[in-house]
Amino acid sequence: MADGCAVLLTIISYILVVLTFPVSFFCCFKIVQEYERAVIFRLGRLVSGGAKGPGLFFIIPCIDTYRKIDLRTITFDVPPQEILTKDSVTVAVDAVVYFRICDPCVSITNVTDAPRSTRLLAQTTLRNVLGTKTLAEILSDREHIAQSMKSVLDEGTDPWGVKVERVEVKDVRIPHEMQRSMAAEAESTREARAKVIAAEGEQKASRALKEAADVMADSPGALQLRYLQTLTTISAEKNSTIIFPFPMDILAGFSPFAGGAKEKNDLRY
Questions:
Q1: Structure confidence by residue, pLDDT tens digits, 30-75
Q2: Cβ-contact 97, 76 below 8 angstroms
Q3: Within a domain: residue 265?
Q4: What Å distances lie between residue 238 and 202, 226, 264, CA to CA?
Q5: Residue 190 lies in a domain
Q6: What is the C-alpha separation between 265 and 172, in angstroms, rounded?
């Protein structure tokens, strides 16, 4: 019975279109843009063939209704969400989501408002995903978190004809007390690293000095040359009188008593 009434109403509508052709032309033909699609319902039922467009399409007045669907990428900000992390730290995190409608017919028939539903799902997904992460993971691994959110959102919005293209975590705000603690921890870590580097430098310098001392011990002439070089450097940098001990070993070869003293020492022994 219902199908018969639908056929009868369709025939009557066609007759009216033909009888009022000059005027009905402007009511029967519609235009959608390249980035739009038209979902047509005839007597409450979805017209076979899917969405129409882009360009010109035909509808029957009185029995056809249609809705335009924008296929361009839609961007929205997820409001800051108060999240308790896995290590019991309260943070405020916001994000941005990029999505588009990939199936116009499904987005109309399966959900009341696809964009609004996607926004609400993004908020809950943000809380659920970040609730399983520690504060360190949230701060250092945003890319992985964004990919996880994208996968969960894409899976949830697929029955709505929505495709989530990208998710980005914008900002992570932590309490001021935690910021001071993290700053103190970072400063302590830097100081410890500086001490380790300084200790390693001292160790390397000590090894180099030991090697130099071994070389000078094997060659007394090298020690004397180093001594004279040090004196030259001091005299060039400081314009003052410097008193230093003169090495007696240098005068040993020039002393007239050096040989006799040596012979007496030999005879004594």
A1: 889 999 999 999 888 898 888 888 988 888 888 888 999 999 999 9
A2: yes
A3: no
A4: 28, 18, 44
A5: no
A6: 87
